[in-house]
Amino acid sequence: MPDELSEVLDTAIYKEIASQAMYEAAQRKTDDPGAKELLKDLARQEAKHADKLKDLRQKGLVKQWHQDEIADLKISNYLTGGDTLEGAGLQDTLIFAMKREEESVDFYRKMMGMMREEAAKKLCANLTNEELKHKKRLETLYDQLFYGED
């Protein structure tokens, strides 16, 4: 496997494992049942993502996954708060998670610009899209919960 590709995969796996651990630890920092459930779900998703990436690494990236372009709703771009999960309720937990996904999108976009190998660039594009998908899911939930019409 080319060096850049290995580097991207190793970094992505590390980021997913670190996110899973952070969401698991955050469950002990809140008493809000909705926030706890969201954090459990986020930890499970991060574990699945890490497993998917480990599988790609093991199989040698014979085939990259295809995805449609995901629209960025940009809701989190206009929200404040969510700086910490300590004692956070559901709203701040969602804001925190959305901003974390936004940071991941930015990270993989920047990483893509630094890569020379086409396979590594494609992997970064796919990872960017995956993070956008997660961000969109969280932003849609936020919109439904806090701005939805009765």
How would you characterize the overall build of this protein?
By secondary structure, the protein is an all-alpha fold. The protein has one domain: Up-down Bundle (Ferritin). Helices cover 70% and strands 0% of the residues. It contains 4 helices and no strands. The protein has helices at 3-26, 33-59, 90-114, 118-146. α1 (3-26) runs antiparallel to α2 (33-59), α1 (3-26) runs parallel beside α4 and α2 (33-59) runs parallel beside α3. The protein starts with a helix and ends with a helix. 33% of the residues are buried. The mean pLDDT is 89.
Which descriptors apply to this entry?
mainly alpha; about 150 residues
In short:
The chain is mainly α and 150 residues long. The protein is built from four helices and no strands.
Helix content: over 70%
Reported CATH architecture: Up-down Bundle
- Average pLDDT confidence is 89
CATH topology: Ferritin
